[in-house]
Amino acid sequence: MANFAIDAKKENTYDAIVIGSGISGGWAAKELTGKGLRTLVLERGRDVRHVTDYPTTMLNPWEFEHRGQLRKEVRDANPIISKCYAFYEGSEHFFVKDAEHPYVQEKPFDWIRGYQVGGKSLMWARQTQRWSDFDFDGPARDGFAVDWPIRYKDIAPWYSYVEKFAGISGNKDGLPQLPDGEFLPPHEWNCVEKHFQQQMATKYKDRPVIMGRAAHITKPQPIHLEQGRAQCQHRTICERGCPYGGYFSSNASTIPWAARTGKMTLRPDSVVHSIIYDEKLGRATGVRVVDANTKQMQEFYARIIFVNAAALNTNLILLNSTSSRFPNGLGNDNGLLGKYVAFHNYRAGISAQYDGYLDSTTEGKRPNSPYIPRFRNLHKQETDFLRGYAAGFSAGRISRTNNEGLGASLKENLVNPTLGGWYVGSHMMGETIPKETNYVALDSSLKDPFGIPQLKISVGYDDNDEKMVKDYIEQMTEMFTAAGFTNIRTRDDKRNPGLDIHEMGGVRMGKDPKTSLLNKWNQIHNVKNVFVTDGACMTSTSTQNPSLTYMALSARAVDYAVKQMNAKAL
Ligand SMILES: Cc1cc2nc3c(=O)[nH]c(=O)nc-3n(C[C@H](O)[C@H](O)[C@H](O)COP(=O)(O)OP(=O)(O)OC[C@H]3O[C@@H](n4cnc5c(N)ncnc54)[C@H](O)[C@@H]3O)c2cc1C
Ligand code: SF4
């Protein structure tokens, strides 16, 4: 019997375990296997294989039973996820339904999730800007949260490393707040967007408008072809999964690359319950997993563990990893685990018309749009709120389908819609300040279908966010007016936190174990063989989108971990 037990343990023992197969977990898996480690990737959701498991990707609008619309019963049963713009008949199978995975909203919070191999990398909007020292210096300069233990120079080479592999399109704009990267050619502008860019350059010294930087292969390089990925076809239905691998997803890129090494074992339907801590050894030895189908608990073991379950689920797993050494969650000696959660403030938007360029129009589609980098409080504090916001911007020509006629004349009319004027629009992407009072915790009584405590989320806006919304509306109104746009309409949709889908923090990085959970290598201060490289690690939120930074931090942390293992220091 004893031998059976030893054999079973051996069979379940790996060099490394990665929890989660989304954007950050995919990168951890690729790097660990690439360095020769036998790696177990545990994913709570089902398997989604590149191409074969994208059932709607080749459907035309008329081939959808409901023409792409959500059915009323789906909408009624899912009031939270139905708020997400990317949730529709073509993509609904990739989003977590409200009733399946309950959580507790101590304050209203729209938690948008994708539980499957690839996680949210299948449905994301692919905006990928580097962060700068305006972000990494931010908490120290403006006196909030704690100082980041890294600066831009620490992560810059890792941005380059992940950008080349993932394929990031963009223009080298030379802006200090938005460092340039290893770009593939940028997407094209239309004439009204160019007009806005030129007007802003004439009227303001400090408000550049640039083309968005996005994870699309605009010109495949050998490394992309080697991944089996091809040039983006500009279909703009990416959230259905892309059979060309035109945008970066774990499914198209990092996971198959890791599989090719022969070192990866991918185990879908494996819900990680907690991390096992061995008090005698003073380290984590493995994880407890609930099989999603049988609900049986099983254990897996490894020398190092990467936690990449996405920000809030990573908090949940660590909070649920209790032992007599860590009664309040793994590594949680200072009681800060789950606290200082923050997000992006996406509440405000603006739209208008432009009466010029009636002799021009657009052709085809573009899976990206222009971007206004942060300009507020950059070099000095100039407003009554801290930090700032970036903004999306785009212009298009209104076209109305002309369905008059029959036969050839109907066809002719359909392909030549009636053109109206130009519309323009922008939305805000504001930084929020991490606070101790914005936290997640385990609910003391409610359990999920796997017997795991439900996550209680208590995250809200504050006065700083309100002032920022007001400023965005004022500044953008001024900028739109200066550009000659008319019929300007502004909105504050008062959306709940969470719908930005950029939740971060709870397991923040820092210099001091008394005030942070992770060191500068994303290593839990007092459980050195556990690394957290998803959004949970973020000390502050910047205005830039976060996922490129998770990729770079993951690759950097793996490099460090493996060097430490080779030096027998881990
Ligand atoms: C519509 C949409 C648009 C977005 N647009 C952008 C954008 O433009 N730019 C940007 O930077 N970001 C964007 N995001 C956010 C981006 O998708 C996330 O930041 C990113 O996917 C986070 O990577 P991750 O590895 O932390 O999490 P995920 O990609 O969510 O992966 C986490 C994985 O862990 C698994 N998991 C969770 N719990 C467990 C458990 N207990 N056991 C085992 N496995 C578990 C999940 O099933 C999932 O597969 C967008 C997201 C959405 C949905
Ligand atoms: S726009 Fe590009 S990346 Fe998106 S689905 Fe189409 S080809 Fe794929």
UniProtKB/TrEMBL annotation:
Cofactor(s) the record lists: FAD
Pfam families listed in its UniProt record: GMC_oxred_C, GMC_oxred_N
The entry's keywords: FAD, Flavoprotein, Oxidoreductase
Domain Glucose-methanol-choline oxidoreductase N-terminal residue range list: 113-323
Single GO MF descriptor: oxidoreductase activity, acting on CH-OH group of donors
Record carries keyword Oxidoreductase: yes
Ranges for domain Glucose-methanol-choline oxidoreductase C-terminal: 434-553
Family statement drawn from the similarity comment of this UniProt entry: Belongs to the GMC oxidoreductase family.
Name of this chain's protein: GMC family oxidoreductase
